[in-house]
Write a structure and sequence with these properties.
single chain, about 220 residues, alpha+beta, Alpha-Beta Plaits, 2 domains, 5-stranded antiparallel sheet, 4-stranded antiparallel sheet, 6 helices
């Protein structure tokens, strides 16, 4: 029977192993860490209850390990598939776990009109004569790792001393414009205090967290 994968972690979770979607959780040694898994014959339906339970399992694990890389909902692999997906990726996984160790995620949303998620073609003087291939790669990189627009400048400036890493996501058809911050656990209280003041000053902003670092986990099992 295959394994349903919830997360990769750096060490066994403290306390009991716990329960997954319907069965007991297990640990599998993988390159760079441990996979937290559950024996399951099929992928659960993408319904609110299953999605919520997956989130609850990851949140519980995150509270019991120093570092966690959440795995996307619906990841079902047999032993060979799990080994193949993570083969020769131990250094990548170790780096990713180190980056999120003892850190949590906060998620900001801004209510705005929907804008295009695609970067406009570059018109900077430094791009002139670089050739279409180089220009395409630069534009693709900017699209993959977009920078927050000026509307986020004040928030970022106020919170920057407390941020270990940042990810920005332009608005899509289903998700509003979002900003993700990775914050050390011992800085959560200070971050929350500043964040509360920023939210009260701008009614277009909402913040949730702390969460497991979903936005900062590489898609190693995608």
């Amino acid at each position: 029977m295959p394994w349903y994968v919830f997360a990769l972690v750096d060490r066994p979770p403290a306390g009991r192993k716990g329960k997954g979607l319907s069965g007991a959780l297990s640990l599998r040694r993988v390159p760079g860490g441990l996979a937290v898994v559950e024996r399951r014959a099929d992928v659960p339906p993408a319904e609110f209850g299953s999605l919520q339970r997956h989130q609850e399992v990851v949140a519980d694990l995150a509270s019991r390990v120093p570092a966690i890389l959440p795995v996307r909902f619906g990841t079902l692999l047999d032993d060979d598939g799990l080994a193949e997906a993570l083969a020769e990726r131990d250094e990548e996984i170790e780096r990713a776990l180190a980056a999120v160790r003892d850190r949590v995620q906060f998620t900001w949303r801004r209510k705005t009109r929907r804008t295009s998620i695609f970067a406009a073609p570059s018109t900077r003087a430094g791009d002139a004569g670089a050739g279409p291939g180089a220009d395409y790669l630069r534009r693709a990189a900017r699209t993959a790792r977009p920078s927050p627009p000026p509307a986020w400048r004040t928030l970022r400036a106020k919170l920057s001393p407390l941020i270990a890493a940042e990810q920005y996501q332009p608005a899509t058809a289903t998700v509003p414009e979002s900003l993700y911050h990775l914050v050390a656990r011992d800085a959560v209280a200070r971050y929350s205090t500043v964040a509360d003041a920023l939210r009260h000053a701008d009614d277009k902003l909402t913040m949730t967290g702390p969460w497991a670092p979903f936005a900062f986990a590489p898609r190693v099992l995608a």
